[in-house]
Specification:
Keywords: Signal
Order of helices and strands: HEEHEEEHHEHEEE
Oligomer: single chain
Number of helices: 5
Helix content: 25-40%
Distance between the termini: 21 Å
Number of strands: 9
Radius of gyration: 15 Å
CATH class: Alpha Beta
CATH topology: D-Maltodextrin-Binding Protein, domain 2
Protein name: Phosphate ABC transporter substrate-binding protein
């Protein structure tokens, strides 16, 4: 493997986005296998999950799918990938709901439910433990 810009960027993105400082399992941001998107800027992922944008690259409608509040994987996703605490996320959505500007992402119980719903719904995006990846969903490369 040569050291070109794309390889270095991919390696840095994987280290920055997927590694958890407390040793928790790696996360994978996933979409339907039919989704034409292969990579996603971290800033766009943040916009989708915080209700600021409803689109993936290529003007594909994005429907975020969240894990249940209180689950370790949810806390790791918001802390390690979006740089926000559970309290900050709760405050953000309280403000959005109060002003009537949006609704938080639908919450599901576990990785299996995330995979099942995403596999059946083009444009839906979520996150799972990387160990749960299988052929039913596609992991996106997150770029800084």
């Amino acid at each position: 493997m040569g050291f070109n810009r794309a390889n270095i960027r991919s390696a840095v993105a994987a280290l920055c986005v997927l590694a958890s400082p407390n040793g928790w399992a790696e996360l994978a941001v996933v979409v339907s296998g039919d989704t034409p998107v292969e990579s996603l800027p971290a800033s766009q992922l943040e916009s989708v999950f915080l209700g600021r944008s409803s689109y993936l690259p290529g003007e594909l409608r994005a429907v975020p799918l969240d894990q249940a509040e209180g689950r370790d994987i949810r806390e790791a996703f918001y802390r390690d990938i979006l740089g926000r605490s559970p309290a900050q996320i709760k405050a953000h959505w309280s403000k959005i709901l109060f002003t009537g500007r949006g609704r938080p992402p639908r919450q599901v119980a576990n990785d299996e439910e995330v995979k099942r719903l995403i596999a059946a719904t083009p444009g839906m995006i979520g996150y799972i433990d990387a160990a749960s990846l299988d052929g039913s969903v596609k992991a996106l490369e997150l770029v800084p």
